[in-house]
Write a structure and sequence with these properties.
Blueprint: H1 5-8, E1 40-41, E2 45-46, H2 47-60, E3 65-72, E4 75-86, E5 91-92, E6 99-102, H3 105-119, H4 148-152, H5 184-197, H6 202-217, E7 238-239, E8 242-243, E9 259-261, H7 263-275, H8 281-288, E10 306-309, E11 314-318, E12 321-330, E13 333-340, E14 345-351, H9 357-369
Antiparallel strand pairs: 1-2, 3-4, 3-14, 4-5, 6-9, 7-8, 10-11, 11-12, 12-13, 13-14
Length: about 375
């Protein structure tokens, strides 16, 4: 998994970026057409224009396969799959093809965590230490102050991941609650706490996610815990046009990184957010509320709209209005989701190409430029 998910979602307000790579048209399969789609999306852009845009930009960024869904007025008005899931075998992407959602796991996991809050089993402001001490932070008593709210808004002081240049083991970067640092480690800690509260393991937490979120919303393709029973539907990951080895299946609940899904399935949950379904109104108000994340004044991403962090989603103030967004990068996969609650608009894109966030940025800008 990559450590760049924060920067993935904070570049929306840029003008269209230059293409990174060129590739012949013959190298990419044509898009698989959805069963039905309106001739126009967003009031002005024809569905065919989006198809052409995607084909062109996928060639430019050397993206073999993609799954895209667009939401208008709280419903999916456009869903397409493009290209190939496996270029060597010539296997086309279909609506059954799964992509690694990477950090798009985080806002979905935050929604699951809120179901524990609704039950009264998780207090957002109670130190997680009181539920379960972190097994790798016993050397640092500061971790006893970390709360679920801090984890979900990236103010816990934990690093993104414990491994990295000049970094050994797991250490806090600041007193919990006093700063901002994007952290996958925090989400993994909260997942351990939820499993402990529910007296279960990774498989049991997956079962709770399926029962509480996926099945009620009709998300038949979305899973946190990977299964060796689904390898034939998984897209092959690529970097610079070359296939990467599939990461061996791990039976772990990766709250920060592990969902496998596709665009229409993920869009069902996004629509639930727009319709305020699955949680109480007070819970939704808490979920979307800015947490005063204390983002540094000199944080470069502020120039691109980063305003605050909610419980699982970045809050951006942009020329397109307030947006809630998240991006994701695992090796060989890039994803992006964007929501406008005010306009009940959204988009979600999954690809099987490494570090191609600029494609998602261009797409979002293209769609917003054509919307009413």
């Amino acid at each position: 998994m990559q450590a760049t998910a924060l920067s993935s979602i904070l570049l929306f307000c840029l003008t269209l970026l230059s293409p990174c790579h060129a590739r012949s048209a013959e190298a990419l399969a044509p898009p698989a057409e959805a069963a039905s789609a309106p001739s126009r999306v967003g009031g002005q852009i024809e569905a065919g224009e989006i198809d052409r845009f995607m084909r062109d930009r996928m060639q430019a960024f050397r993206v073999f396969g993609a799954s895209l869904a667009i939401i208008e007025d709280g419903q999916v008005v456009y869903h397409r799959t493009f290209g190939v899931a496996d270029n060597e075998a010539g296997v086309a992407v279909t609506d059954q093809t799964l992509f690694e959602g990477a950090s798009l796991s985080k806002p979905l996991f935050a929604y699951l965590a809120m179901t524990f809050v609704e039950e009264g089993r998780l207090d957002l402001d109670r130190p997680l230490y009181e539920y379960l001490p972190h097994p790798d932070l016993t050397h640092d008593p500061r971790h006893r102050a970390i709360t679920a709210r801090m984890v979900l808004s990236h103010t816990s002081g934990l690093p993104n991941w414990r491994s990295g240049p000049g970094q050994e083991g797991l250490t806090l970067h600041f007193e919990p609650g006093t700063g901002f640092k994007y952290s996958g480690e925090g989400y993994q800690y909260l997942a351990l706490v939820l499993a402990h509260i529910a007296d279960t393991d990774a498989a049991g937490l997956e079962a709770l996610f399926q029962a509480r979120v996926a099945k009620p919303l009709g998300m038949i393709h979305t899973h946190f815990v990977r299964s060796s029973e689904r390898p034939s539907t998984k897209a092959t990951p690529y970097r610079d046009g070359k296939p990467l080895a599939q990461v061996p299946v791990k039976q772990e609940f990766g709250a920060a990184y592990s969902i496998e899904t596709e665009a229409q399935d993920y869009a069902r949950w996004m629509i639930a957010l727009l319709d305020a379904r699955g949680l109480s109104q007070p819970a939704f108000a808490t979920y979307f509320a800015g947490q005063q994340a204390n983002i540094p004044a000199d944080e470069p991403e502020r120039a691109f709209g980063l305003h605050d962090w909610a419980l699982g989603l970045a809050i951006l103030e942009t020329p397109f209005g307030r947006l809630y967004a998240h991006g994701g990068n695992n090796e060989g996969f890039t994803s992006l989701m964007v929501l406008s609650r005010e306009r009940k608009w959204g988009m979600v894109l999954f690809t099987n190409a490494d570090q191609v966030t600029p494609l998602g940025i261009e797409l979002m800008t293209f769609l917003q430029g054509g919307s009413n």
